[in-house]
Amino acid sequence: MSLNIAIDGPAGAGKSTIAKLIAKKKNIIYVDTGAMYRAIALYILRKGTDVNDTEAISNDCKGANVTIGYEDGAQIVYLNGENVNAFLRTEEVGLTASKTSAVPAVRAQIFELQQKLAKENDCIMDGRDIGTVVLPWASPKIFLTASSEVRAKRRYDELIAKGESADLEQIKEDIEKRDYQDMHREISPLKQADDATLLDTSNMTIEQVADAVIAMCP
């Protein structure tokens, strides 16, 4: 059986940053599941589909061929053959992904790819339902969280460091809105798996969190 590590938690909890570091330390593949859903959201946005029309999203998402590649250990997301990594981290795409990822047809499309990757590789995945739905057999399972204030500040600092303008209060509002959407969606809502370990990263360094997770690995 492959080593499969599952990390779940709300937006901005540090899931991707931690998962990438652990993947490097353990020399395993990092699978950014959120990026897969964001690729579908990007496709829906580009197509101009009504993000509140579940039937339209179900039909249109079929035109989005999302594939994964790796270059120097880094994940590359391809949308219909185009490397779209540079377009996936905008607030618009993130909020859209929170809605489109709740559509059963979208989840089924990504779910198959996720499980195939895990069964064939030692890997770490992060998302909203990895430990509860995608990789129920994963060990260890971690639920990362942090206060909305801390998560908003992290995102704000990230944007400022890139030379982009940012509104801290607006980011906090967007994060709390996304938390609500993720926790209240009908399909695979955000929640902690019964056998997952809760880690609040508000007052922890990246290295401290990574080391804590690695200590739980078999």
Can you describe what's shown?
With 218 residues, the chain is an alpha/beta fold. It has a single domain (4-214), classed as 3-Layer(aba) Sandwich (Rossmann fold), CATH 3.40.50.300. Helix content is 49%, strand content 17%. The protein has helices at 15-26, 33-47, 54-60, 91-100, 104-120, 130-134, 148-161, 168-184, 206-214; strands at residues 4-8, 29-32, 66-71, 74-79, 82-83, 123-127, 141-145, 197-200. The strands form two sheets. Strands 2-6-1-7-8 form a five-stranded parallel sheet, with helices on both faces. The longest helix is centred in the middle third of the chain and has 17 residues, at 104-120. The mean pLDDT is 92.
Brief digest:
The protein has helices spanning 15-26, 33-47, 54-60, 91-100, 104-120, 130-134, 148-161, 168-184, 206-214; strands at 4-8, 29-32, 66-71, 74-79, 82-83, 123-127, 141-145, 197-200.
Helix-strand blueprint:
Elements: E1 4-8, H1 15-26, E2 29-32, H2 33-47, H3 54-60, E3 66-71, E4 74-79, E5 82-83, H4 91-100, H5 104-120, E6 123-127, H6 130-134, E7 141-145, H7 148-161, H8 168-184, E8 197-200, H9 206-214
Parallel strand pairs: 1-6, 1-7, 2-6, 7-8
Antiparallel strand pairs: 3-4, 4-5
